[in-house]
Amino acid sequence: MERKLFTEKQINTSTFLGGPIPSGLLICKNYMVMGKARSAYFTILFTLLFTVIFFYGLMQVPEAIMDKIPNLVFTAFYALIAAIVYRFLLHKDVTQAFENGADKGSNWTVAGATVLGMVLNVGIIFLLALSQPYYECNYIDVNGNELYYEQAEVSIESLDKLSEQLVNLGFFDQDYGNIVKLEKISDAYQITILIDEKYWSDRDLINDLVSFKLFMQVEFGQETFLQLEAASLSGNVKHKHL
């Protein structure tokens, strides 16, 4: 049987370009070619666990700190891990295999593994992001919807009033998954409602929300502001004040 193995350079390049998953795929293929199926399966498991833990850990770092760290630092970190794994676990066996006539794996396969790794990375990041709270503050669950608040600024009574009216408005119906934030700015309340930007031009909706804002102002007994928020997949956030 023809033996094609991937070199250290190919694996390191795929890791640098596509993240931690491509190196795991290529190392797995090397193990399979060498007849080490158990090591191949362990490599895939380790790669997936490392990727999930790595990206989850990054999501726990405050944004102010993340902004100060160049992306190259993270790339260099997992590329170094892949290089160390290859050097200590595969280098000797692969070198011996090449000396015995094994062929070098195709760069097209490396490219395919790199692209696949990028896609899987995005999928893992997306799923992890869905599991994270939208705002970095406390929240209560209301019929499967989330009402965020700063505990030191907002009273439970205010939260109860807002959640009750959101249910009455129909925005917090069962399992809609809608998100609202209540915060105190100076002596005024601000309500932020996440609504897709395409609905911002809906006149009936806007009129209902303006009426809702005025009603909550009476309920709170304080000046109340209302803003709409929309976030794109790229992380861009837009607001519209009503």
SSE arrangement:
Layout lengths: L3 E2 L2 H11 L1 H14 L3 H24 L2 H4 L4 H19 L1 H9 L3 E2 L2 H25 L6 E5 L2 E5 L6 H14 L9 E7 L2 E7 L8 H18 L3 E8 L5 E5 L1
Parallel strand pairs: 1-2, 4-5, 6-7
Antiparallel strand pairs: 3-4, 5-6, 7-8
Helix pairs in contact: 1-2, 1-5, 1-7, 2-3, 2-5, 2-7, 3-7, 8-9
General description of the model:
The chain is of the alpha/beta class. The chain folds into two domains: 4-131, no CATH class; 138-241, Alpha-Beta Plaits (2-Layer Sandwich). It is 57% helix and 17% strand. It has nine helices and eight strands. It has helices spanning 8-18, 20-33, 37-60, 63-66, 71-89, 91-99, 107-131, 156-169, 203-220, and strands at 4-5, 103-104, 138-142, 145-149, 179-185, 188-194, 224-231, 237-241. Helix 9 (203-220) links the parallel strand 6 and strand 7 (224-231). Helix 1 (8-18) runs antiparallel to helix 5, helix 1 (8-18) runs parallel beside helix 7 (107-131) and helix 2 packs antiparallel against helix 3 (37-60). The longest helix has 25 residues, at 107-131. The chain crosses the membrane at residues 40-59, 71-90, 110-130. Keywords: Membrane, Transmembrane, Transmembrane helix.
